[in-house]
Description:
The chain is mainly beta.
Amino acid sequence: MRKAFCFLSLLSLTVFSTPCVMAQSKKIEATDLPEHPFQVDYPSGSQLSLRLRSGDIRVVGKDNNQISVRVEARDTERARDVRVFFERFDNSAELRVSGGPKNDLKIVVDVPKNTGLFVRMPAGQLEISEVTGDKDVQLHAGELILHVGDPASYSHVDASVTSGGLEAPPFHEDHGGLFRSFQKSGNGKYRLHAHVGAGDLTLR
């Protein structure tokens, strides 16, 4: 019976937190995250695109070869509507998180520590920590906190805000107001691009 279920799920390429298909499917869709957190194997050193809904979101690097998404919510019934869509390509993947209540919801996305990130999010609070690799992160409105690690590990850094505050102690930068930005070059191997439209950008 379980083999039959896995076969049917594989044909549809759609799964709701079913481990038997995760290792084989290129496209995975999941809901009901309060009861069944999303998890899929993903190799360290790969590139990952994150398309995130607005809200309170944390992206954390972990010492394993997996991507996981879990939610913490006051109203777990409404949080079941949070939807994850994952699509795997040859050397990269895209993860989209959408739906669910607007307030009283925290989403945590765990990724392999060594991951190149491309992140886009409309609004809210986004914090990225413990991730080593290229980072291209943009937030339209809200607060972006990006833990950069060793500043010497970057070959190029550019950070900007259209309106708001820009603090980057590791790079000895502190600005506020309209159209604030800075660029740095170095001898590292990674590139960092961070932008906030309206709000605050902090590089730690």
